## 1
Amino acid sequence: LREPVAASAPGKVIITGEHFVVHGSYAVAAAINKRATIEISESNSGSSIVYSNKTRSPLFLNDGRFVAVKKVARSILEEYGKGGESIALSISSEIPDGSGLGSSAAVSIATAASLLRFLGRNDDYDNISKFASLGEKEVHGNPSGIDISACLNGGIILFNKKSGAKPVPMDRAIQLLVVFSGKKRRTKSLVEKVSERRKDYPSFFENLTGAMSFLSLDVVDALTSGDLPRLGALMTLANASLSWIGVSTTLLDQLVERANAKGSYGAKLTGAGGGGSIIALPKPDLATSILKSIGQNFRFSFLTSLPQKGLTWEE
Ligand code: PMV
């Protein structure tokens, strides 16, 4: 029997530039302290199976379950001629689906990394990224690639569709508050909604995309110099722009308001919007009290320090 192989990858938040990154701007994203783990072992049932603690589903059945994981695993088995192999893929994830926190990217990466290694195939980052992107596409339509880059590399990245990811060096850690609104949404339909807005105001949209690039470069400066008031201000402006393109909701606006009122330098929706999550940059001495206050109504709320590690193979 082959030894089981397990890998884990973090979720992510987008600090600035979501949506605009699809249209060519720079964006900044960071790995967070919630992870997804996949373990691959030989299946003793004679057929391949995917399971979590809640449910199980045959790998080659299209039942709408584990869509990203199945796409990645099947593509790898097809590519390497191992379709006859019986494997068991066990998923355990701390990242809620549809929360905008990179759940599909994290499971796609952990699946690609663990399965490639299990089969003794090329498991360098390029090959992992190639297969993981297929899982992301299955869920997101036409993603910019920022989620896969952030979750695979870890840390904080400056990302652009043309130039890819550059790590942002950090002298000291910073702390972010993350709050999941509880409302799941589909990234694909929000990305389409933004394209509609762009059609109505093409010139303004183009300039706003350029502005978001400059803003993301300023965010990198604020991060590396540890300038929290400036970082918070830039997050606030980014949120106003996301609101203008129509991806915020009353609930997200209220969460952002509350995080600001309780003592943050700034806050914004993160990811595709329409639901999902917000991030806030709390004043350091108030971080725990803001979490306590918001966490009473929004159970999936947590603090994460940045940077966090990317893909790891588990012992
Ligand atoms: O994965 P989400 O839902 O956090 O959103 C990804 C960010 C978008 O810019 C909206 C889409 C993309 O592919 O870049």
Note: The chain has a mean pLDDT of 95.
## 2
Amino acid sequence: MSLAEQLLRASADGLIAFDRQCRYVSWNAAMERISGIPASVALGRVAFELFPYLKDTGEEMCFLRALDGESSISRDRPYFVRESGRQGTFDAHYLPWRDDAGTIVGGIAVVRETTAQKLAEQQLRETESRFRNMADVAPVLLWMSGTDSLCTFFNQTWLDFTGRSLEQEWGVGWAEGVHFEDFQRCVDTYEAAFNKRQIFEMEYRLRRHDGLFRWILDRGTPRYTPDGSFAGYIGSCVDITERKELEALLRRAVATRDEFLSIASHELRTPLSALRLQADGMMRLVEKGSPPPLERSERAWHMVQGGVERLEQLVTNLLDVSKMGTSGPTLNLESVDLAQIARDVCERFGEQLDSSGCVMSVRAPAHVFGRWDRMRLEQIMTNLLTNAIKYGRGKPIEVGLEADATTARLHVRDHGIGIAPEDHARIFDRFERAVSSSSYGGLGLGLWIAKQIVEALGGEITLVSTRGEGATFSVLLPKGSS
Ligand code: ADP
């Protein structure tokens, strides 16, 4: 076998030659494999008769050009051989075939089958588009970078979030949306992990399409090709702004609780110390064998009573916080006379008024009946009067009660330190105070409790006050059907 014949046989590519009538004069083994047509059938046959698809796909022109002395290339031509059932795609390179004198006696072609390659490409495209589809509908923001650390992919969720195009985010464009305070930390974390091919996690603020910065948790993982070589990173991000806000809220709540506990223990200790002092003083007198004079005993008794009342009020408030916090105040509704309650409660404050130098006036009609809870109304009044005395030492206090057919309105007005407008709303919240605990004792619960009760009774509590000019708390209560 000549060398030329051996080469023809060994070639992985199909090799053909055709004469000026486009009849095959050479048909190698690779052509037999590709087409499924043996040389014995192909040789001598006109190409377009044996393979009609050559006309349909325009391949015929390449044959004719070769006969005209021109080379041509066709790519990814589809083929279908009816006789053998073979089909697929091929690339072919056509050249004129010249004899020794240089006359064109036909054409030759090198045919390379691309079916498997095309299939692989198509599968890759399908996998790729499946990935993109999944990535685009994923609720997380996804990105991908290459081996040069530049980002080359962002899913639709990311683009919708930032409101920017892929071109804008491409490479390092995405970093434009990172908050400048977080930017350097972000770059450092990414680069350090990237160089070591490590998984990383970072939190940063990213500008959303509406211009707001949102906290993002970004987890990056190195990715590798099937042969194990590093291909870059893939990252997924979730918006954790709400979680962060909740965390901050919880931290504040814990700090408030701790502060509350320390204030509460201080508040409880103060009347306890006073009680102990009185008890010790009395005990010393008894030990000396001299019973205390009546006047001294009375004074001590009043002080003990005041301390006990203070403790009682503190403990009641503390118990109320835990109960009301979950289910609101319990109400025992009955027909009660608010005017009588107001007078009774004010009278009970006689001692405290004396020692604080406050004078209290009460203006109320003889009776104001409504369907309320007696104990709870006393609690509201007690809390408001305690504050009026505490924050208005030495100044007069006016209590007023008015009523019409459906509503009662109670005012407690003092002329004390007053409350700045920015604090008006928050002092009705639990543990909120607008004074320092070193200047004024208190748990920050009295107004919160009063508000809970008033609202449970269908009413409302309001405040009018300016700093330094006293405060007026008004409680509006619907009478209810009595
Ligand atoms: P507490 O008095 O124990 O701190 P409250 O809930 O009764 O708690 O009141 C909350 C805050 O509202 C007080 O700490 C104080 O800053 C302010 N406040 C309440 N009543 C008055 C008042 N009559 N005058 C001035 N400030 C007041």
Note: The longest helix spans residues 241-287.
## 3
Amino acid sequence: MFSRRQLISGVALTCTAAAIQRPTLGRADYRSTLGPTVTPVANGRTVEVALEAAERPQVFPCFGGRKLPVWTFQEGVPAPVIRLRLGETLVATLRNSLPRPGELVTIHWHGIRLPNAQDGVPYLVQPPVEPGGSYTYRFTPPDTGTYFFHTHCNSVEHFGRGLYGILIVEGDETAPCDHELVLAMKDWRIGDDGNFAPFYTSEGAAKSGTHGTVRSVNSAISPRYTVPSSADVRLRILNVDPTRIAQIGIEGAEAAVVAIDGVPCPPFALDTWRFGPATRLDVIVRTPADGGVATLTDYFSAQPVPLAVLASAGDARRTGGFDPAPLRSSIVPEPDIANATHMNFTFSSTATGASVAELASIDGFDVGSLCLSSQTFWAINKRSWVSKDHRNTGPPLAKLDRGKSYVFELENVTAQSHPIHIHGHTFKVLGSNKRKLPPHHADTVLVGPRERVDVAFVADNPGNWMFHCHILEHQESGMMGYLTVT
Ligand code: C2O
Ligand code: CU
């Protein structure tokens, strides 16, 4: 039996569906390989958290027994999970205890429509936090959903070392699920010497990015979670990898997408979903009967990769058919498409980027041996962001009038995919010239090679907002800019 998703992946797969459904993992159960939920200091409707960026060498299940110098925001496995109820205010104090002299840090709350001053972009909206310094963020997220946070300084390395966390704003469920799991997908780049390998490479930056060597979910390889049987389990799936594009699906169970990038959508059956860096997908799965397994799988490779296994145990929780209730709908303002101003943004490679990509494609050619005078490989509307540390920003890519509706035509003229992210706003995805997309909103839209995706939004949030590719090596080598809303 060949499923549609096997056809979608574009390669004739030789493994059988049965093999996919029951991957031979032979691993111990990881009861909880996700970090602790940040314990809120309840203070009325304020949730206070302390996030200390620091090096905390440790052994993760996916490190094969090695201790690696990860950088994290809290003790324990990376990705502290902050949970708020809608309406609560987050007060997060960031302390920079990173060991490297001069290493700066900020926190960007990815996807949250917050006031510009809390957006965590160095120089553009706040001074970066120097070693030994601290900074307090305070905002009340206007929307429910699955989000994450990360630094906006030296991002390739910071992501590579694990400096990120998860932010969940609760209050969107109209009917409770039986169980919930947060599944954060991220590769780790471990070299032959057992230490981290360079996170940034010129050949990666000029092409699809430098991939990790070990795939993980919640820092474990194909972790196995025990879930209730015949139950509706909510998965909050995040792609927190700096590079990897996956094509995710659930093998062995019915599943429905209920939110994309945190924004609820009408539930639709999950076949597979092209899952770019920085995007999130909320999925409800009807788990198999006692003893059965369902597998979160990446089909974007010749052999499907089992990312995480849900193992059913105990009495059946539900008997009726699978029909997950929609989440509470979002309050993202509806753009006025008929009167919107259209703007084209063309994502291209620079001449240097194109020649490095070409050289990198020659077998045996060592791009590292080139004396590259610049790492400017990508551009938006022919402009490259050259200030990796954001110190010299130059003029905005576009000036938008506050309260007006815009249609952005995101046109990718390159041979690579680019997950395009806007800060402080949420797009309504109107459509693609290449594929059918369900109606949905997003803060990060994957635009494939030579694809054009149109998105619309109301520019209702004043300030300077970054607009960039979320393949972080592309971002750091030029595919970044900002928009000014006044
Ligand atoms: Cu996750 Cu500038 O973004
Ligand atoms: Cu890109």
Note: Helices lie at 4-8, 17-21, 155-161, 202-206, 351-360, 472-476.
